[in-house]
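Posted in: Structural Biology > Protein-Ligand Complexes

Title: Requesting predicted complex, fe (ii) ion in pocket

I'd be grateful if someone could produce the 3D structure tokens for the following input. Sequence and ligand are given below.
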Amino acid sequence: MIDASASDDQRFRHCLEIQRRVSAEHNLDRLAQVVMDEVTALLGADRSTLFLFDRDTMELRANFAAGVEGRALVVPLRMGIVGTAILRREIANVSNAYASPYFNLELDSILGYRTESLLVAPLLASDGHVLGGLELLNKNAGRFTAEDEVLAKQAAGRLAKWVENGDAYPAGVEAEVIALRNTVGCDRGTVFVLEEGSGRLAAIHADGGDGRSISLNMKLGIAGLTAVAGRSIRIEEAWEDSRFDRSVDQRTGYRTRSMLCVPLKSASGESIGVVQAINKHAGPFSADDLATLEAVAGIVAIAIDNAMLFSDQERQFHSMLDVLAASIDAKDGMTAGHSTNVAQHAVAIGGELGFSIEELDLLRVAAVLHDYGKIGVSDSVLKKEGLLSDEEFAEMKGHASLTEDILTRIHFTRKYRNVPLIAASHHERLDGSGYPRGLTGREIPFMAKILTVADVFEALTADRHYRKKMNTEDALAILDAGAGTRFDSHVIAALRRYLAVPEPLVVKPPPAENYRSG
Ligand SMILES: [Fe+2]
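-- Reply #1 --
Done. Output follows.
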């Protein structure tokens, strides 16, 4: 970390350090924290905030604001479909406006108009920042076609050039919209221009209606405006800037003076968020500060894009696991929930033993899948009440090696590479009396020893076809009786700590071992 008076050279080295740190971080929450700490230090600011754009709710969310105590800041963008298309920098083609979560009903009621179908194309400047949007309403033939989209996109390109050069208004724009409306065959055409001074989308031409112009006042605040326009904003005195929303300061009692706000854009140019620094310690932020933050934002955007992709993949992976676990559960309603309960116990035990988050993740996956091989055991054996014959027991035992056979066919990333072995070893016993391999002591993966205890404990304390559930003390007594011979005593001790059940002073004989840890 450096202070604000650092030389260019120090700043450059700090930027490289930031690059190194953010590229190494795949966890979105930790990444956000790193970014804010580093930006605050790099610029000599009082605090900094990372806003990420939520595509579902159309909000900019800051879960982390360095210098602000755990408060989540949310900037609702509520800009209707026009604003949404602009923010995404892509065409919006909606056939039933009232069904769209982004549609702004207010406008229809102001204008006394009923919007049905709607086509919006963003107006983008040559450098990619947003100039405004072109909106077409109510196609005569019901809904706008792919051809209409192409035409609108081309028209938006020409309109953008005119708006960018500042020589369009109004004749060129008017002719363009009338021509487009006639070709496409629709009710209205409106061109909005984003006024960066006020944060409004102002209609510079409305064609086909009653000629009334409307402006969408978006009250975006500085962060919102940065995201929508896709352009950085530097402010020396926030309270003197009409774009600044004082209400947050008024609520929190904090006084914002200088600000730097830089958009984060994905590789495809779409806004993914905003990074903001507030109150430089020594005077307002300089143009150099802005250039520095823009350089950092480029690096950060890539890292965030990656982290989001990564968390998407993790979510996909874990939802697939849930489906697999549910499919084992579906075989037998009586044992439904067994896999997830075992996972819960196993992770709690692992936590007591000091395992890292990554390790607990591996343990959870192995636990959720440990009985997957039961998919190949016949229902008559799986659901049998009473004792199993030797033949039936052999079939039941087969589920452990079947688990391994099936799981080795899944491509696990390196982190989860041991899942098949750990999962398949949950019936191994320290003294070699277990199955499928009859491994002993250290031959058994330690995580499998955790699964064993979690599995037996879960099996004992839940109802089964052949007996009622047992209470915690009795279940622990059975585990204790096998401590050191079948079950690992460290693991049992960790289970006790998690359950907050101390070791008994007088050891009583365990109840009859009427359980089948399947
Ligand atoms: Fe099992």
